Amino acid sequence: MGFGKFKDKITDALSGHGDKVDEGIDKAKDFVDDKTGGKYSDKLDSGAQKAKDYADRFDDDTQQDGDSRPGGADDQPR
């Protein structure tokens, strides 16, 4: 399976399920925070928010292929 097909499968899986993705990110963050005794809470909160923001880009049903979805035309370095 090429990267394009893999990306399409991930996009399809995440599309419309942003709430479940956010719950999973929070659950993982809380697990790691618990295991590290809260030592990295600020960094985990920041990382979890960035992951949610990125995942939300997949969940936007109004975007068109090649526009601003991850890996699309707007995701290219300038």
Overview of the molecule:
By secondary structure, this protein is mainly α. The protein has one domain (3-58). It has helices at 3-14, 18-35, 41-59. Helix 2 (18-35) packs antiparallel against helix 3 (41-59). The two termini are 28 Å apart.
Using only CA atoms, what is the Rg?
A: 15 Å
What would you call the structural class?
mainly alpha
Largest sheet, if any? none
Number of strands: 0
Gap from first CA to last CA: 28 Å
β-strand percent reads under 5%
Helix content: 55-70%
Tally of individual domains: 1
Give the count of helical stretches: 3
Mean pLDDT: 79
Overall morphology: elongated
Q: Uncertain runs with pLDDT below 50, 5 residues or more?
A: 61-67
Write down the secondary-structure element order.
Answer: HHH
Task: Output the keywords.
mainly alpha; 78 residues; 63% helix; elongated
Sequence-ordered SSE layout with sheet pairings:
Blueprint: H1 3-14, H2 18-35, H3 41-59
Task: Describe, in short, the structure shown.
This protein has one domain (3-58).
